[in-house]
Design goal:
This protein has about 220 residues and is of the alpha/beta class. It has helices at about 20, 40-50, 60-80, 100-105, 120-135, 140-155, 195-200, 205-220, and strands at about 5-10, 35-40, 85-90, 110-115, 165-170, 175-180, 185-190. It has 8 helices and 7 strands; from the N terminus they run βαβααβαβααβββαα. The chain has a 7-stranded mixed β-sheet.
Length: about 220
């Protein structure tokens, strides 16, 4: 991956996967020091601000989301104007989220996806529950389930959107499972095919990884 070209790095995955916690560990060296726009964190900050302004509680979530989107658009435009790298932390579980990627792609950016996932939806629910106890924001279990399933489906179906994809296991800390460039596997570990979320929900990518590992085994046998 040539980072001399302006790059949008998308850090995605289900709720509770640890994206915010481990994001720095998943950034290429060329992105050292680059600020990441965390949609959830920015929304939470606006919720706190609005709560201090005596705005009716029922109106706060929608208004906070609007303010977050406005801030994101401003930051995106600034980066695009300067042709700077940009890091966006966001789920890709809804078509609306992909408009952010389009804005960069239409301005000559290459796009990389670093995807962090947990083994089961229940793991995500438990992580979010712990986050709430520590003062973080709450996400309903049904929403977590929807994000988990749609995120995997969309990444698999629209994988050609990305110049590069890195897939990580997030159960303890980010462990790289596989890397694709231009929709071709360039690195993969056997542990990738032990992940049910990858094998059964990212079927096209899993097939490519299986073929890559098979070719590696054949090559080693022939030596």
């Amino acid at each position: 991956m040539n980072y001399s070209n302006p790059t949008l790095l998308v850090v995605s995955g289900p709720n509770g996967a640890g994206k915010s916690t481990h994001i720095q560990a998943m950034l290429p060296a060329d992105f050292n020091g680059i600020w990441s726009f965390d949609r959830d964190q920015t929304r939470s900050e606006f919720e706190v601000l609005l709560a201090s302004q005596d705005i009716p509680v029922e109106l706060i979530p929608k208004r906070a989301s609007q303010l977050m989107e406005e801030r994101l658009v401003v930051e995106m435009k600034k980066a695009i104007h300067a042709q700077n790298h940009f890091v966006l932390e966001t789920p890709l579980s809804h078509p609306d989220y992909w408009k952010y990627l389009d804005a960069f792609e239409n301005n000559g950016y290459q796009i990389q996806l670093n995807f962090l996932c947990l083994d089961k939806i229940s793991d995500c629910v438990a992580r979010v529950g712990q986050r709430v106890l520590e003062g973080g924001h709450y996400v309903p279990p049904d929403t977590i389930r929807g994000v988990y399933e749609k995120n995997l489906q969309h990444v698999n179906d629209y994988r050609r959107t990305f110049k590069c994809i890195e897939l990580y296991d997030g159960m303890k800390y980010p462990i790289l499972l596989a890397k694709l460039e231009n929709d071709q596997v360039v690195l993969a570990y056997p542990s990738a095919l032990q992940k049910e979320w990858l094998v059964h929900r990212m079927t096209s990518i899993a097939q490519k990884i299986s073929a890559f590992l098979g070719e590696q085994r054949t090559s080693e046998t022939q030596r």
